[in-house]
Amino acid sequence: AVHGISIEEVHFHEVGAIDSIIDITGAAICFSALNVGAVYVSEVELGSGFVKCDHGKLPVPAPATAEIIKGIPVRTGGVDFEATTPTGAAILSTLGTEFGIVPHIKIDKTGYGIGHKDHPSIPNLLRVYLGEISEKQAPGHKALLIESNIDDMNPEFYDHISERLFKAGASDVYCSQIIMKKGRPGVVLNVIAGQGLEEIVKEIIFTESTTLGIRTFDFRKDTLAREFGKLVTEYGEVTVKRSFYKGKEVSVKPEYEECRKIAIERNIPVKEVYNNIMSLLTQNKK
């Protein structure tokens, strides 16, 4: 998007360097090993001033960073150098599930990353907490409902649009059937997203669909606390999702995609895999 050329023609400079590859690979390995249920990202400090790269002297944020960080709450001017690189922006935008709102958590572990550049009054640190959502915290948070009416689009496009919206950070995407003016059947495309994702969601809807307008509503979203764990089954280890209300478990179920993968590999019905695992979960409760 920055260069205006196809992916095949793009030549990597800094992002193809060893340190960038190590950063991305390390973040991916860490995320996979921790098996966390959500990643909350505070406002991202971009910095200020200019940065030297293979393209010359560029303003902060660099064009690639500005493109990648689109739709995520940011701030600038906290330091007089580049505080967020394209690599860092890519990691945050890919792994982050909620942006701008950091919940109350019970901290289990803390990790620090220290930058090379020094600032006289502000430490150049990245701090990451590993913990659980506090039970005393109200279960709700502010969210956005973004919707649009569509009556003239190829229905095959909805799958592609939904996939892009989920990749952009939407927590849910769904369609509702409606009857529009003059008796025309139509669809309401509904998107639920966290605060700060409004612009990227609107861009996807306007560029990918045939809608002419979008409605945006602020609302309160109440969700159950969730935990992810592993369960040893006859099929091997399977990820299990547990949901809690005021500290009490109210539901538990296996990860569907893993059940589906097992069913395909063993050529058996997915409902057989799912039901067998649910039966094991029920037995373990007794």
Structure overview:
- This protein folds into 3 domains: 7-133, no CATH class; 140-222, Alpha-Beta Plaits, CATH 3.30.70; 225-285, Roll (Ubiquitin-like (UB roll)), CATH 3.10.20.
- It contains 7 helices and 15 strands.
- The protein has helices at 18-34, 63-68, 86-95, 157-167, 198-208, 256-266, 270-285, and strands at 40-41, 44-45, 50-53, 56-59, 74-75, 98-99, 105-114, 125-133, 140-150, 172-179, 185-194, 215-222, 225-233, 236-245, 248-254.
- Strand 3 and strand 4 form a beta hairpin.
- The radius of gyration is 22 Å and the shape is globular.
- 19% of the residues are buried.
- The model has no long low-confidence stretch (mean pLDDT 88).
Topology of this protein?
Blueprint: H1 18-34, E1 40-41, E2 44-45, E3 50-53, E4 56-59, H2 63-68, E5 74-75, H3 86-95, E6 98-99, E7 105-114, E8 125-133, E9 140-150, H4 157-167, E10 172-179, E11 185-194, H5 198-208, E12 215-222, E13 225-233, E14 236-245, E15 248-254, H6 256-266, H7 270-285
Parallel strand pairs: 1-6, 2-5
Antiparallel strand pairs: 3-4, 7-8, 9-11, 9-12, 10-11, 13-14, 14-15
Helix pairs in contact: 1-3, 4-5, 6-7
